[in-house]
Design a protein that fits this description.
32% helix; agmatinase activity; 290 residues; Arginase, Chain A; two-stranded antiparallel ribbon; globular; eight-stranded parallel sheet; Ureohydrolase_Mn_BS; EC 3.5.3.11; 8 helices; alpha/beta; hydrolase
């Protein structure tokens, strides 16, 4: 599953060349083929890596440093432009290999549809899997304008695969009337807020394997304008970082994570990839087992 040798771009700060001994593997999924508004998230993984150069290795929140761990940045998957189905198959195959090698996968998107094949592989390995989904959008559509492969559909696909009772959604503030009705009936659905409902529900997930997927647009556009479908009324970066720490301090078993929908072209200030890179650092230190 070693991609880094052929990768000519920048890598995440302090990443190692030692795949064999790495506990976690960062990998990019530069796909934005099904977005419904503004494309550009295919450039997200590269800009998140570049922004990481400005990070300190030390997290004062967790009193840990990424200098004290071994993780590998595999670079970006070479996804066939415009071919969503084949791209999802390639992500599926790559993540399956990471899990076979015992690695903790941390994905960089890309549009949110890239999370769907990851969930499939995670659920195959962990039948008791729970999904924590933090996002502005419900992503509970069966199709979008006739397309079943859409960044509006990954969580609905997850519901059909693993059951809505295993899915926990936070921060949702946009979606169709039907999505909100479906979420309230079939999913552990917590619209508008993230931190407080997360604190209340994490104890019920004690000991369970959990996959965490974060769409950067859960943040208010004032904190993260660089995304394809910005939605006013979001949370602050401080609250999102605190949510990561709540998960990391809980007794759940996080088995993988991703950050998606960073579209840097819409953010000349670069604050969006900057906050995304910090989220990745906190995930590395908080989620990856010692």
């Amino acid at each position: 599953m070693l991609l880094n040798e052929a990768y000519s771009g920048k890598v995440f700060i302090n990443s190692s060349n030692d795949y064999d001994h790495a506990r976690a593997v960062i990998y990019g999924m530069p796909m934005d083929f099904t977005v419904s508004f503004r494309p550009g998230s295919r450039f997200g993984p590269a800009r998140i890596r570049e922004a990481s150069i400005g990070l300190e290795e030390y997290s004062p929140y967790l009193d840990k440093s990424i200098e004290d761990m071994i993780y590998f940045d595999a670079g970006d998957l070479m996804l066939p432009f415009g071919n969503a189905a084949r791209s999802l198959d390639m992500i599926d195959e790559y993540v399956r290999g990471l899990l076979k090698d015992g690695k903790f996968p941390i994905g960089l998107g890309g549009e949110h549809l890239v999370t769907w094949p990851i969930i499939r592989q995670m659920y195959s390995k962990y039948p008791d899997l729970a999904l924590i989904h933090i996002d502005a959008h419900a992503d509970l559509r069966e199709q979008y304008e006739g397309e079943v492969l859409s960044h509006s559909t990954p969580v609905r696909k997850a519901v059909e695969l693993m059951g809505g009772h295993n899915i926990y959604q936070y921060g949702i503030r946009s979606g169709s009337r039907e999505e909100f009705a479906f979420g309230r009936e079939h999913v552990n659905f917590h619209p508008f807020e993230v931190l407080e409902p997360l604190k209340k529900t994490l104890p019920s997930l004690s000991g369970r394997p959990v996959y965490v997927t974060i769409d950067i647009d859960v943040l208010d556009p004032s904190a993260a304008p660089g995304t394809g479908t910005a939605e006013a009324g979001g949370i602050t970066s401080k609250e999102l970082i605190a949510a990561i720490h709540e998960i990391s301090r809980s007794s759940v078993q996080v088995v993988g994570a991703d950050v998606v929908e960073v579209a840097p072209i819409y953010d000349p200030t670069e604050q969006t990839p900057i906050v995304a890179s910090k989220l990745i650092r906190e995930m590395l230190l908080g989620f990856v087992p010692n």
